[in-house]
Amino acid sequence: xxxxxxxxxxxxxxxxxxxxxxxxxxxxxxxxxxxxxxxxxxxxxxxxxxxxxxxxxxxxxxxxxxxxxxxxxxxxxxxxxxxxxxxxxxxxxxxxxxxxxxxxxxxxxxxxxxxxxxxxxxxxxxxxxxxxxxxxxxxxxxxxxxxxxxxxxxxxxxxxxxxxxxxxxxxxxxxxxxx
Length: 179
What we know:
Layout: E1 3-5, E2 10-12, E3 19-22, E4 33-35, H1 37-40, E5 55-57, E6 62-65, E7 68-70, E8 77-80, E9 88-95, E10 102-105, E11 112-119, E12 134-136, H2 148-152, E13 157-159, E14 162-164, E15 171-172
Parallel strand pairs: 1-4, 2-5, 3-6, 4-7, 5-8, 6-9, 7-9, 8-10, 9-11, 10-12, 11-13, 11-14, 12-15
């Protein structure tokens, strides 16, 4: 189908899940839309938290691919926590969300983000603050890296990712650990 109405958060929290959510291209060349409009309607004019993120990944080994994620009450996609590693977000559009399009935070490590378009995300509750295209911030990655091999396995990478017309920054790395 072309659009799936999401009335609640998709919470992906298992460790070593090895789960892939992959959209199949429609005959007109478009990809399926995960539309969180129905979920967002309860939060108009209210502050939101991690509970209102569209897709929240706090586990490991998930793949999100070939989807359009839109109109979440908070981040479109959030990867958060020290157990959130080795996830892949690929070939997606993340748009019209009420905070950052894609956020990696809170110790999340070794996540690959490839071929993502993140645009027109706007946090209306904060008058436009916070809504970045891509936010790798607030302690993304491990707190401390003590060796070269740990560093190599702790990176969050972005390849061919594009951001425009977001109400705050295109890219935000506020409070990213110095290591």
